[in-house]
Amino acid sequence: MIGLLAVVTLVYAVILVVVLAVSLITIGRALWSIETTLGRISAGLKVVERQTAPLGGYVSALNDGLATVSTGLGSVAGHLSGADDELAVALGEPVAGAATARVA
């Protein structure tokens, strides 16, 4: 009986080692594939970085210009809001933020 248990235990240990080895080999192959893919992505990103490097000065100038436009548009929005309020008063409509007169 003890001999049978020893053989079953030995067979189980061998099967366990084989299953673990296959699992580790599968994981290793997956990691190698991921490493290869990440290497290709890294190389591609370096090419993109090199090709877009000359655009840096233009982007800064564009951002500065857009900041100026944003300031100007804010001023225009304020003037349009004021004109809207004046037109509302002229037409007898309630103005946002102004006290409304009650009609009895």
Structure description:
There is one protein chain. The longest helix has 51 residues, at 2-52. 84% of the residues lie in helices and 0% in strands. The chain is mainly alpha-helical. It has helices at 2-52, 56-91. The chain starts with a helix and ends in a 13-residue tail after the last helix. It contains two helices and no strands. The radius of gyration is 37 Å and the shape is elongated. The protein folds into two domains: 1-56; 66-104, no CATH class. The mean pLDDT is 90.
What would a concise description of this structure say?
84% of the residues lie in helices and 0% in strands. With 104 residues, the protein is mainly α.
